[in-house]
Amino acid sequence: MRLLGRDFAWGVATSAYQIEGAVDVDGRGPSIWDTFARQPGRTVNGESGAVACDHYRRWADDVAMIAGLGLDAYRFSIAWPRVQPQGRGAFNVKGLDFYDRLVDGLLERGIAPHATLYHWDLPQALQDLGGWGNRDTAFHFATYADAIARRLGDRLASLATHNEPWCTAVLGHEIGKFAPGDREPQLAAQVSHHLLLSHGLAMSAMRASGAACPLGIVLNQSGTTPATDSAADRAAAATEYARFVRWYMDPLFLGRYPVDAGIAHYPEVRDGDMALIQAPLDFLGVNFYTRIWVSRDRPERPAPMALGQTDMGWEVYPDGLRELLVGLKDQYRDLPPIFITENGMANADTLADGRVADQARIDYVRRHLEALAQAKAAGVDVRGYFYWSLMDNYEWDSGYAKRFGLVHVDYATQQRTLKDSAHWYRDTIAAVRHEGARADQADASDQAVPGDRVGGASAATAAPAAATGGMTPAEAHHG
Ligand code: FCB
Fold first, then answer.
1. How far away, in angstroms, is 477 Cα from ligand 1 center?
2. What pTM was computed for the model?
3. Which of 121, 160, 170, 384 lies at a CB distance of 3.0 to 4.6 Å from 9, suitable for a disulfide?
């Protein structure tokens, strides 16, 4: 894992609705998840993020906890309805102040703040006007994005527009598993385009106003594996890859939608949309959890699950991370630096005598980091890794039933307890840094000329570079 290098950002990730709670405090407006969770049968036990991890009040302790883990980066999302309650018009000073304090609190502890603008909590007021099905929402998003970039951009290590637009489009509008809960494929396709358009408009607005931090987007991605070598399975796997990965990557990097995605209704695209969407990114965030297994036989052939499955029922397939990243490098020229912005597992954790023994999670992370090091050795420019999630939290339609955290949360008391995996992650990062420093020292003394010893040693013992993954704003703008 030393191969990941010293200038590599080690982090954890969360999102606003999943941890903050305080949904009706300090002027926050309602979001589509508040509405959705109230509808009978939408979420496990009708649970919502109304309280979640109470992070809105406990943020300072949570930042201290992140620092205690020895991490150098933290990815969080900004709740649009907290900072602009109606999604357009007036901004909410108290909401903006909250993120200001959070960012400053992180920086004071040497933790680089990586923010995401949209992690699924659309202001309900915009949903009432048609939500992401309404093209106007893309323009409102750009206004919101630009306001945040102006306010926080000078201190952020990165700013992503969207988290996993596939989930918003497909799970939210085609399958109805996520808010707003629609089941209309044609609407979902149009939503996917409006999400990408909103990304492009936001990028253009933030660039125009001179955003000081690297800008990008976060996509959930998985390779697809045909269950057999049959022509039917192979074709189905290719189609699924086009729908899941290429539907977003092709517009962003090639300026067009794939024609072989088996989509019945293509979205309405207006002149100029694709040029906006295709504007250069400073980084690409990749969220990876599992692979997609594709079988056309009936009954379907099950995935091998050689390394088991998580509490979500997702296959543990670490090599898929290497396969995916190396594939992307081959399929798209001029990829920007990549961050693994999410990777992790839900586990049926139990707290006993103050301890959570989650060896399965340790194995999961270790194997994925090994796969990541292999991808890097194969030439993939990966700059950081964020475990999902810092702590157990509100897992959307699964409510509080699924525990992804390195830190256990007792929702009755809000007590946080570091799981074994948290201790392991902290120790592993420290060991990787230490090894890296020793290797640098060895390199430096190899190259040292007499009299240059001091310089070599001090370079080797210098604090790790700020955890931007080594991305500078200059490089950020693609030279
Ligand atoms: C991702 C989401 C994140 C969390 C994890 C388990 O798709 O971005 O909020 O739910 O899955």
1. 29
2. 0.94
3. 384
